[in-house]
Design brief:
This protein is α/β, with parallel strands linked by helices. Helix content is about 50%, strand content about 15%. The strands form 4 sheets. It has a 4-stranded mixed β-sheet. Strands 8-10-12-15 form a 4-stranded parallel β-sheet, sandwiched between helices. The protein has a 4-stranded mixed β-sheet with strand order 9-11-13-14. The protein is globular and about 75 Å long. The protein starts with 6 loop residues before the first strand and ends in a 10-residue tail after the last helix.
């Protein structure tokens, strides 16, 4: 899906993934070539994915599950998760590359040679799963949102874009560990969705926050703007398209602190290190409890909001706004619309 901003891998049932079907291979050993090819292509697709991939692991993560998790960008795990490569006891080898990527040489060799699994707590100690997530960007800004030129060429893409934004913002909000956004330069549209879904936002002194959607024939991320800045400022920003400075965002309590641009990454990493030093169990429960006591149901609210975005996109005014933006002219709206 070209509209996706992040991919979340998760599973139902007793575990994340138990790997290939040993019974099937026992019946027909010639299938190993197909199985090998399938595993290679699946793990490569995760590793080569153009957007970040988060694996949410519960229960058993064995064999091919290690390949999937080890190819991901970030791995989160429930406290009952176990990680292992039992292949040595099944007459096979595999996914040691991905195990090594997660846990390093010494632990990989022991796990591969013995078939012994490790717990989520041990995986966390080894650095194979995350305690905190830091979102940051290179270039002139944090995020400018969706591609207006792409939508101007094909307005039907709005459904895919809506879905991609919804899933990306939800993945940040529902991440089991705290998410810190380090914002510099412009934070617009979808950038507000990402920052507004985060646990903590740090900003450089040159950062600006805004929802210019009203001038692009769209609506969106007001839920996340409201979560940051409250009703009055959200309504003004949404109705006018006016951005605010980092200093104003701090005054409103929408961000945690403002630091010089050159110090942003180090400040964010310092905060992340403090959080990572705490009890992983306590931190996950703290995140769960804080999300649970919020008065605003962020996912339900944003889904409601997206219905109006879609309705607006079907109107001539929306297309006129996008065309005017791309042609660098004033929009001419139907006064009777």
């Amino acid at each position: 899906d070209p509209a996706s901003r992040v991919v979340l891998l998760a599973a139902e049932g007793r575990g994340f993934c138990a790997g290939v079907d040993i019974k099937e291979l026992a019946r027909d050993g010639k299938l190993i070539t197909q199985v090998n090819r399938g595993c290679y292509e699946a793990f490569a697709a995760i590793y080569d994915c153009e957007v970040p991939v988060i694996s949410a692991v519960h229960g058993f993560c064995l064999g091919g599950g290690i390949g999937m998790a080890g190819a991901s960008d970030i791995v989160l795990a429930s406290d009952d998760a176990t990680f292992g490569l039992p292949e040595i006891d099944r007459g096979a080898l595999g996914a040691a590359t991905h195990l090594y990527r997660m846990f390093g040489m010494q632990k990989t060799r022991r796990m591969l040679y013995t078939g012994e699994p490790i717990t989520a707590q041990e995986a966390l100690r080894l650095g194979g799963i995350e305690r905190v997530v830091l979102l940051a960007a290179e270039g002139r800004g944090f995020c400018a949102g969706v591609d207006i030129k792409e939508l101007a060429r094909d307005g039907k893409l709005i459904t895919q874009v809506n879905r991609g934004c919804y899933e990306a913002f939800a993945a940040i909000y529902e991440c089991e560990v705290p998410v810190i956004s380090a914002v510099h330069g412009f934070c617009l549209g979808g950038g507000i969705g990402m920052a507004g879904a985060s646990d903590i936002v740090l900003a450089s002194d040159d950062a600006t926050f805004g929802l210019p959607e009203i001038d692009r024939g769209a609506l969106g991320a007001a839920t996340h703007l409201y979560r940051m800045f409250g009703m009055q400022k959200t309504r003004r920003m949404l109705y006018t398209g006016e951005p605010i400075s980092a200093q104003e965002a701090l005054r409103l309590g929408g961000i945690e602190s403002v630091v010089p641009r050159a110090a942003l990454r180090s400040a964010a990493r310092e905060l992340a290190a403090k959080i990572a030093s705490k009890s992983p169990k306590a931190m996950r429960l703290a995140k769960w409890s804080l999300n649970g006591i919020e008065l605003l149901d962020i996912k339900k609210s944003y889904r409601f909001e997206q219905g109006f975005t879609l309705e607006l996109y079907t109107s001539p005014d929306s297309q006129e706004a996008r065309d005017a933006f791309l042609e660098k002219r004033d929009a001419k709206f139907d006064p009777n619309s």
